[in-house]
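Tutorial, part two.
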Amino acid sequence: MPRSTAAAAVAVAAAAAALAATAAFPGAVAFARPPHPAIPDDVRAKLLLLETFQDRDTFTDSWVESRDGKFASQKWLVNETHGAAKLPAYFSDEKSLGMAAKHAHYGLSRVLARPFKAEGKDLVFQYEVKLHEPVSCSGQYVKLMSPPADGSALDPARLRADSPYTIMFGPDRCGGTNKVHLIIRQFHEKENVWQEKHMTKRVTPKSPQDFNSHLYTLVVRSDQTFKVYVDGNEEASGSLLASDAFSPPFGSPAEIDDPDDRKPADWVEVQKIPDPDARKPEDWDESQPEKIPDPDAVRPEGWDEDEDGAWEAPYIPNPKWRGKWVHPLIDNPEYQGPWAPRKIPNPVHFSDPRPSDKLDVAAVAIEVLANDPGVAFDNILLTDDFDAADAFARLTFFPKSDGEVALAKSIERARRKEERDAYWSQDAVRGPLAWVWGEAYDWAQENILATVLTGVALLAGTFYFCCFSQYGLCYDEPEAAAGAKARAHAHATSSSSSRPGKPPVVDEGEEEDDEGEEEEHEHHRRAEKGGRPAESGADAGAKKGE
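Running the prediction step on this input gives:
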């Protein structure tokens, strides 16, 4: 499910408002929430079941708690937040269905206005889960309940843990279980039993410390393929008919191993044997060590045994070492291959080329054990149109998800700012430094591109200053002076040539200075080469005067 540009724009705008409010009110998170989106009629018309929990009256009228004694402790609430909420609701007046009691079994269901007949249709089931508190052991899956076998109407008040279901789908975390379930029940006609087919691909739900909303989508198509999406990303897919997609697979094989067949006692399964004709060579000496002292090594002349200890020659590989001799292996002439029992016809062979046609649904039920409060369900839908479910997610989940991510960052930023402010008041020396560093870090996290460009500019400037400026390591003063002189001469020449008929005017003082500089440079060059330095013009004049 790709994210829409419009949804992302709404989320970014809301995130900007949240950050601005956070900056205006340090230590608290105030944010402008967008309204809950309206669902277009053309999308709503394609949804066989839609529950957003925005209307408490609709929830009360449509959802029925089981009267079974196992669920006596359940407590449902339709609120914006549940328990010790770690993250507020994103849309204004957004409501969800939450489990409020600890260590309780929950049984709640809603009967479809008309049962879903799966024959020849795609089945698309989708819903959101949000944790308002950390989860240690709580189911978050949903069951699609099977119609009664006698054709009667399903009574939601009689929901039990063993009530027949068609599909069980969604995340579950408790003890060693931490996975997204996909279990499809199939009736085995030959054995006259219902079998649970478990998806073999392991899909791991989000962290129990992740308090953002997450979207779980199941698609079972009439071509006998299935897909599982988490937050719009495909996590599992395959064919219902593949032998390795579900355990046990749909249908049963035409032949099975004969349970009465036994492997003969003289069956040979050893493929290789030692060559009975091989003999160890006479010159094979197994007593030779793998390494020997180097016979060519000589003790260093300055070796002092009193200080350096007794000298020993270094070890080198022994050219005579061949190791332990073993028989080479050859093919076993009596090898018969791996034994397998013979096949016989399967007396309960059952084949169903279209299991998706049997996935009828009469109701949606939440029947779980929850040891933790704060698990919330939202935006439950059932349809036979994947595009309709995708359009609904683009309007609701994706903007919400982007907004929650930005909101969680703003909450964390406000928390860090509160800690910095408190540290400043406790430590007048290190507190201000920590505060400035923290502010800079938060700014850099929110302005990655500007931070990278600033860093590149600083590195480039530092490199130039250290290498090519007049204070740098690569700066050559004589070459720089010569370059400056050449540029000045070129400028004077171009200036004079721009006035035709007039020769270039050269100041005598400048000419003498240039000659003096050239003589001085020549003097230094000769001195560096070790020869007798040439006399400068001034020295020559003084000597002539004498």
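The domain at 5-28+47-251+361-410 is CATH 2.60.120.200 (Jelly Rolls). In part three we will examine how such features are distributed along the chain.
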